[in-house]
Write a structure and sequence with these properties.
Blueprint (H helix, E strand, L loop, with lengths): L1 H14 L3 H12 L8 H13 L7
Length: 58
């Protein structure tokens, strides 16, 4: 069972599925005085940042 949990945690980290949980942990540790983004706003901002630049070879 530990192996399954470890694999699941690894898979979530690699795919970015745990991004909001990591954001919450970082925010609590580094910015406890600032308000926390809700899940929807966090992912909207993340998508906007990911797709705001042109990514191509030429």
């Amino acid at each position: 069972m530990k192996l399954v949990r470890a694999f699941w945690s690894w898979l979530r980290a690699v795919s970015g599925d745990d991004a909001y949980e990591r954001y919450l942990a970082h925010h609590a540790a580094v910015h406890p005085d600032r308000p926390v983004l809700d899940r929807r706003t966090f992912f909207k901002q993340r998508q906007a940042a990911d797709w705001s630049q042109v990514r191509r070879c030429c």
